Amino acid sequence: xxxxxxGRHRRYLQYPKTDxxxxxxxxxxxxxxxxxDDNEQALSIRKxxxxxxxxxxxxxxxxxxxxxxxxxxxxxxxLSDVIMPGMDGAELVxxxxxSSPQTPAILxxxxxxxxxxxxxxxxxxxxxxxxxxxxxxxxxxxxVRKRGPKRALAxxxxxxxxxxx
Length: 165
Prior knowledge:
Layout: E1 2-5, E2 10-14, E3 24-25, E4 32-36, H1 40-52, E5 56-60, H2 63-71, E6 77-81, H3 89-99, E7 105-109, E8 123-126, H4 132-147
Parallel strand pairs: 4-5, 4-6, 6-7, 7-8
Antiparallel strand pairs: 1-2, 2-3
């Protein structure tokens, strides 16, 4: 661990000895993804995949539980299965978008290959028809789109000089 300081804040640079691409600054906020699937095995695999890429992951096995967790706040993206008992993924996304339209949502399904219903999800992916790297890239792009473009530094403003009398 290595400490960096700018005079006001101290941050710690954590780095594994093997891969410099995984070096992170300790105070960098993690993005939170809400994963919803009634299949607990698929849910745990997705959770491990996302956590190893630096995301914070909250999991739920039903749409009702997911909506309750979402309403507590702090969710940056929703990743949900379409077909679930009770509230399905499309209904969950519709309710989330009603309260927070800027939150990105991805629907996944193992049974449906083409989703023909009108949905408010930003993306539909059939399970097994994409590589994990593709899912990770789509998540990254949606989160960047939510954050917006990086802001340029504001130009320096020259203060008026006070004449000495």
